[in-house]
Amino acid sequence: MRFDTRLVHGGQRPAPGTGALVPPVHVGVAYDRGSQEPLRYFYARGEQPTREDLEECLAGLEDARFATVYSSGQAASATVLSLLGPGARLVAGDDLYGGTHELFELLGERGVEVRRADLAADPDPGPCDLVWVETPSNPLLKIVDVERVARLAHERGALLAVDNTLASPVLQQPLALGADISVYSTTKFIAGHLDVLGGAVVCDEPGLHERFLRYRTVVGNVPGGLDCYLVHRGLKTLAVRVERQVRTAGLVAAALEDHPAVERVLYPGRAGHPGHAVAARQMRAAGALVSFEYRGDPMRLLERVTLFGAAVSLGGVRSLIEVPAAMTHRPVPRATRRRLGITDALVRLSIGIEDPADLVEDLSAALSS
Ligand code: PLP
Q1: Which of 31, 51, 52, 310 could form a disulfide with 302 if both were Cys (CB 3.0 to 4.6 A apart)?
Q2: Ligand 1 centroid to 20 CA: how many Å?
Q3: Per-residue pLDDT of the chain in tens (369 residues, 90 and over written 9)
């Protein structure tokens, strides 16, 4: 079965008894022992059929044996980071989602040694136990060469985790590129409709999977059945949504490059982007996020657009606009933001599935006024 077919069919066996093509949504938390043969379900914090349908689909998308889903992307990341105890060494890319920065701060407080490195410029993480990469990164859309980092991390005896939220499995397959763990905020492209929070971890190593399952069952950072259903419903249209979103993102990036109110455009699909060649090699397309530096007041721009929602989040059917320094990356200290290049003038767009001409017109009008 090819990728687009797996999206629709994965974890969607007709329900025994009724033949319902969409399996029922399970909401119960407790299961009767006498009604099962063999005995498999006990309590929904541990095992849950609707959750398992979604996990089967997500694992299949990366040709992996295992996936675990969570109540949010942060819950998924925290579960992966639970591999690290006091004294362990984490090396992470320098440009990351603001909430991930905060998770690393918590790790530092618990005695984990956290080092940040520009892995897009130099892929050698140095001595460590876990390497954490986000590519494309949020919000600068830097591209890290996953194959090279994986090779170097493994030479050091370290695992490589890739936060694949911005690409989604339709554009990039971290495990096939050599990573050990793919992490997702399924809130974004995977669910795609800005109406449900979720997270996922995909891996192919039984020992790792057992540790993630144990942590999730004990901590209880699980999603409920209704949320799993919503994520799975959105997932079925991932390929067609993203195809449209990427095409429009390319048009928007080109229009921004030509606009006099724009200082610079960051989009890995443009030839001038420093990660363009690596992105072309490891991604099916450059993604649906476009960042740029505006010559005016970016917060005023947010007031002038009419179709773009002035909101955080990304990857949904509706286009969004945000200013990372004031919104998603506010938790990152100002000095760090400056050093990374997350200026106060940086604007991040998440392109939805609206008519491309409407989006370009809306943005151009707002930039010109
Ligand atoms: N990873 C990335 C790259 C993100 O952009 C986000 C959220 O914006 C997260 C993780 C956290 O996901 P969630 O908001 O679902 O907890």
Answers
A1: 310
A2: 33
A3: 999 999 999 999 999 999 999 999 999 999 999 999 999 999 999 999 999 999 999 999 999 999 999 999 999 999 999 999 999 999 999 999 999 999 999 999 999 999 999 999 999 999 999 999 999 999 999 999 999 999 999 999 999 999 999 999 999 999 999 999 999 999 999 999 999 999 999 999 999 999 999 999 999 999 999 999 999 999 999 999 999 999 999 999 999 999 999 999 999 999 999 999 999 999 999 999 999 999 999 999 999 999 999 999 999 999 999 999 999 898 888 998 999 899 999 999 999 999 999 999 999 999 998
Ligand 1, pocket-test mutation among 187, 195, 342, most atoms within 8 A of CB: 187
Domain pair 3-235 / 238-368, same fold: no
Domain boundaries 3-235, corresponding CATH code:
3.40.640.10
Going through 246-302 in order, the beta strands assigned E by DSSP cover: 262-266, 289-294
Q: How many angstroms separate the alpha carbon of residue 116 from the centre of ligand 1?
A: 19
Domain boundaries, the chain: 3-235, 238-368
Ligand 1: residues with CB < 6 A are 72-74, 97, 99-100, 134, 138, 163, 165-166, 185, 187, 197, 199
Which residue is closest in CA terms to ligand 1's atom 12?
73
Q: In 10 A of CB 263, how many CB atoms?
A: 12
Phi, psi of 349 (to 5 degrees): -110, 140
- The residue behind tokens 């200013």 is 323
| pTM for the whole structure | 0.97
Q: Which residue has the tokens 């490059």?
A: 257
Q: List the residue whose alpha carbon is closest to atom 2 of ligand 1.
A: 97
CATH for 238-368 is 3.90.1150.10
